[in-house]
Design goal:
heterodimer; A: mainly alpha; two-stranded antiparallel ribbon; 2 strands; 2% strand; globular; B: 238 residues; alpha+beta; six-stranded antiparallel beta sheet; 5 helices; 8 strands
């Protein structure tokens, strides 16, 4: 028997491309714009979002029949908020330098629509294991775009990839300059727009 | 459908559980986090005093601690420039002790090689925090660093960059007759032939408000420490 059933596999793979939370649902782009200046911050942010999504989805799914419908949103939110604070505390203790750079954006995972959206749309209707996979898939889908945006911004804006200089010094000597626009938010918007465009063409998404 | 009683019990329980989890994680990690914060402060003081990490000695928590303990003396002065004996920067709470100020001194083999003072004040978007370091003569800038600010990346956030910080090195913040005048980041480039260039640095184009804020709070903080550095300057002359 394979590790994952076909359905479970789709739960993970779907959000990567065909139903990407950023590219197609255009959720959670605030943080996607803010933390994509460099790849390492994008990677840590991705891991944080994956952790929060998986845990909150699983916990909410376990509790789903016990959560009173009237107050379900607030209960979901308090679970999500607690997971985010937990992640933030762990980052501050073990990855202090990166947590300093991510600053408020870790706490702002609370307001990331992807997490709330998956809790309400998926975890409330499905079992814990499937919800966990859904969290994993959506977190990775989010991270994929984040890292892609960060890749271009770091390469064009600072001439490095994951902190390593890739544009040779001779280029700079010959008059090449880093693209300042890429270090600003508009640069992230442009890259993100291009990625969303490319993704929709590849995925043959009909315009709405 | 759950009734109201259930709803209240459920929400109370879940809140208690979550609060318990959070507070226990917080208290178990508190020590590590606090150590990180302290190490970061020390790292910033070291940077402003001209220490650099190297391949052999990267800035791990332990190395920072060791270098700091070996080469930096920290003490507290009052607003008249007197050193308060037996008080250390860790002991003072800025809210409670408004007249006590931390001061750091780089001492290598018994020779004073510089001083560092904390600086902070409003930039464009919020408060900027950093350290300003001073040569042993008490009148020349040795360096400037920032460890916390929320200025615009690419514009005001350039205060973080070496090109900007390098400009401060060697500039004087007192004039010929010993008056405190601060160091001004001006619009555009400094004209080196100007008689004013000794206390001016190149501003950041597009970040006038950040530069203005920085000029103001640097002068304000230097004024706070001026009585101490007046003594330093006097001793150096005599």
């Amino acid at each position: 028997m394979p590790l994952l059933s076909k359905q479970s596999k789709n739960t993970i793979v779907d959000p990567l491309m065909a139903n990407n939370p950023i590219g197609l649902q255009v959720l959670g782009i605030c943080s996607a714009l803010a933390v994509t200046l460099r790849i390492d911050t994008a990677v840590v942010m991705t891991l944080a979002v994956i952790a929060v999504l998986c845990i909150s989805n699983t916990v909410i799914s376990i509790l789903r029949s016990m959560i009173p419908a009237k107050v379900r949103i607030i209960v979901q939110l308090s679970i999500i908020a607690s997971m985010v604070i937990l992640t933030d505390l762990i980052l501050q203790a073990y990855m202090y330098d990166i947590s300093k750079e991510l600053t408020v954006f870790v706490s702002l995972i609370i307001t990331n629509c992807i997490i709330m959206g998956r809790a309400e749309a998926f975890a409330m209707q499905n079992g814990p294991w499937k919800s966990f996979l859904d969290g994993l898939g959506n977190g990775m889908g989010y991270g994929l775009i984040l890292i892609a945006v960060a890749f271009f911004r770091e390469l064009l804006g600072s001439g490095t990839i994951y902190g390593f200089q890739v544009i040779p010094d001779s280029f700079y000597a010959a008059g090449y300059e880093n693209m300042g626009l890429m270090t600003l938010s508009p640069g992230a918007f442009i890259i993100l727009g291009l990625i969303v465009w490319a993704q929709r063409i590849i995925g043959k998404v009909e315009p709405e | 459908m759950h009734n109201n009683r259930y709803t209240i019990i459920f929400t109370t329980l879940i809140t208690m559980v979550l609060a318990f989890v959070l507070s226990s994680v917080y208290s178990s990690l508190e020590e590590i986090t606090e150590a990180n914060v302290q190490a970061d402060i020390k790292k910033n003081i070291l940077t402003s005093l001209g220490f650099q990490p190297s391949e052999e000695i990267p800035w791990s928590k332990e190395n920072v601690e060791a270098i700091f303990n070996e080469s930096v003396e920290s003490f507290v002065i009052d607003d008249l420039g007197n050193v308060i004996p037996d008080k250390f920067p860790e002991d003072i709470d800025p809210k409670l002790n408004a007249n006590f100020f931390p001061l750091y001194r780089k001492v290598i083999d018994g020779t004073i090689e510089g001083y560092a003072i904390p600086i902070s004040g409003k930039g464009l978007w919020g408060t900027m925090y950093g350290y300003f370091s001073i040569e042993p003569d008490g009148a020349t800038a040795k360096g400037i660093t920032f460890y916390k600010h929320i200025e615009t990346p690419g514009l005001g956030a350039e205060v973080d960059k070496p090109w900007f910080q390098q400009n401060y090195v060697g500039k004087k913040f007192v004039d010929g007759s010993g008056n405190l005048i601060g160091i001004q980041a001006i619009k555009g480039k400094v004209d080196n032939s100007s008689t004013e260039s000794y206390h001016q640095v190149d501003g950041i184009s597009g970040a006038t408000m950040t530069s203005k804020g920085l000029n103001n709070f640097l002068l304000k903080d230097l004024r706070t420490y001026n009585s101490y550095f007046e003594q330093v300057r006097r001793e150096n002359k005599g």
